[in-house]
Amino acid sequence: MEKDIHVSIKRDDLIHPIITGNKWRKLREYIHIAQLNGIKQIISFGGAYSNHLFALAYVSHLLGIKSVGIVRGDELTVNSNPYLHKMNEWGMELIFISREKYKVKHIPNHIDLTVSLCIPEGGFGELAVQGIEKLVIEINSEEEYDHIICPIGTGATYLGICKANLNSQIHGILTLNNLSEIQANAKHLNISTQQLHEDYIFGKYAKDSKILDEFCQLFLDKHHIKIEPIYTGRMFFGLYDLIKKDYFKPKSRILVIHTGGVKN
Ligand SMILES: *Cc1c(COP(=O)(O)O)cnc(C)c1O
User: How far is the CA of 177 from the CAs of 2, 154, 191, 200, in angstroms?
Assistant: First the structure.
């Protein structure tokens, strides 16, 4: 059935082919500080498929800053997947550590912390939230929306938008079971969260990933816009479902943030 809802998409996926979407916005303040303070190397953490580490490796390569990626899983090598391979080629020092050590964010002794800037896992931090301000300014210079919707990983993007006190309702689609962490971060940064949707996390089952993969393919066929199952796929799936359930009033104007994440 047709619903009378207006949906616009903010194409942050088009910012850059490698440093897509919110990863650039989240990194820029850190990079800026590194440059201002003559910092020699940037260290960060992530999984084997981390978009954040991938973006950091590339930016550091471009700007001639040394980067260190501490990667979860000591069974991995630089040849475990094409992204790690690329990051290594761009000059990132990749250090593979066990899951136990990763949990406590262990930094190996040979890394000189006195000349380094350390970005928390997934790029989350006050500076990342601050980096989203630019996105908000761009949104604000466009038209008014009743609702803004984005996916949530660490929550930096979502909290950055909430922080701006726009006249819109801000919806975050959770992609992981980390609601309490998001709420704690929000409290710590003194930001009020708005609508958080937990119904689209899916599980780790093959069936779930099949549903999401198919959804992303259908979306591409219909709209010619690439999305991926982890973040933007879950978000658009959630958006469609909420629209289907008449969650939004007729004539609502919705802005969707396409946060990127499609690696080419
Ligand atoms: C990293 C990432 C997110 C999560 O953003 P947070 O600011 O960490 O919540 C969302 N979408 C895509 C495509 C990402 O790569």
Answer: 32, 11, 20, 10
Tens digits of per-residue pLDDT, 113-157? 988 999 998 889 999 999 999 999 999 876 799 999 999 999 999
Helix axes 22-36, 156-163, angle to 10 degrees: 80
Q: How far is CA 263 from the centre of its chain?
A: 13
Contact 135, 25 (CB under 8 A): yes
> Mean of the per-residue pLDDT values for the chain?
94
Ligand 1 nearest atom to the CA of residue 228, by list position: 13
Rounded to the nearest angstrom, the distance between the alpha carbon of 156 and the centre of ligand 1 is 8
Q: What is the pLDDT of residue 1?
A: 60
Does ligand 1 lie within 6 Å of residue 232's CB atom?
yes
* Ligand 1: centre distance to CA 79 (Å): 25
One-letter amino acid of 238: G
Look at phi and psi of residue 9 and say left if phi exceeds 0, alpha if psi is from -120 to 50, else beta. beta
Distance 74 CA to ligand 1 centre (A): 25
